[in-house]
Amino acid sequence: MSDSGRDDGLRDAAANRGLKLVRSRVRTPGKGDHGRYGLTDADGRKLLGFGKSGLTATAQEIEDYLHKGALADWKTSLRSAGAGPPARPKKRPAPEAEPRAAPARAPEPEPAHEPEPEPKPPPPLSIRPARPADSEAIADLVTGLGFEAGSDEIAARLAVLKKGRETPFLAEQGEVIGILAWHVTPVLHRPAPVGRITMMVVAYGKRRQSVGRTLVEAACVEMRARGCGLIEVTSQVDLSGAHGFYRRLGFERTSYRFAKPLGEE
């Protein structure tokens, strides 16, 4: 093929690809870039065969370039028509795994409420003779009846009663909670002495718990042992609650009690 025929073939192949063939203008063999070619796109941008001193690509290099471009276009057309080997998809980077949500924690069980400890039962009630060490507790009980009495006065009176073998009875339940004073009186008009409950008081918070009843029963046992044939009790007129208490224990009202204070001469 002549040079002009080859040039025409390359020019047509380039045009079919939307390109433009550039041929050296040097006509003398062996001079400059004689016989060399270049390729540009439709906008004149250089694609192949351009050097600092002129054109550099041979006719074969231009042909190979155009052939490769045509082959690439052919494969693309086949893929778009559904024929030919499918294009291998570019590997996309695997999406970053979303961090797994921590498994929901089961709610912690509420701590079991320990049952309230049952209150300790109170100490057993005991009845015993009063002692000098009880003077302060006895003074508090007597003051609750409306009688002023200090612990020293109570201690002195306890000593007198002890000499007469008439020591008062104390009710104790962990602490002193009640007291009963008593007296045996020989009388002329009766065949046997008369026993008398001269005072009884139970701490306010311990009333209606059989403390008074237990004190009276202890006094009855003692005065019966002393030969008493009758037991009396004195109670102020305005203490109606005490009156009912003694009636429930079998006491009856048998007389009026009269009193007169003895002043100094």
Summary keywords:
265 residues; alpha+beta; 5-stranded mixed sheet; 6 helices
| Widest β-sheet, arrangement of strands | 6-7-8-9-10
Classify the oligomer. Answer: single chain
Shape: rod-shaped
The poorly predicted ranges are: none
Average pLDDT works out at: 83
User: Helix count?
Assistant: 6
- Secondary structural class: alpha+beta
Beta content comes to: 15-25%
Radius of gyration: 66 Å
Gap between N and C termini, in Å?
176 Å
The description of the largest β-sheet is: 5 strands, mixed
By DSSP, the count of extended strands is 10
Helical proportion? 25-40%
Order of helices and strands: HEEEEEHEHHEEEHEH
Structure description:
This protein is of the alpha+beta class and 265 residues long. Helices cover 32% and strands 18% of the residues. It contains 6 helices and 10 strands; from the N terminus they run αβββββαβααβββαβα. The protein has helices at 3-16, 59-81, 135-144, 151-163, 211-225, 240-248; strands at residues 19-23, 37-41, 46-48, 50-51, 54-55, 126-129, 169-172, 176-185, 194-202, 230-233. A 5-stranded mixed sheet has the order 6-7-8-9-10. The mean pLDDT is 83.
Summarize it:
By secondary structure, the protein is an alpha+beta fold. Helices cover 32% and strands 18% of the residues. It has a 5-stranded mixed beta sheet with strand order 6-7-8-9-10.
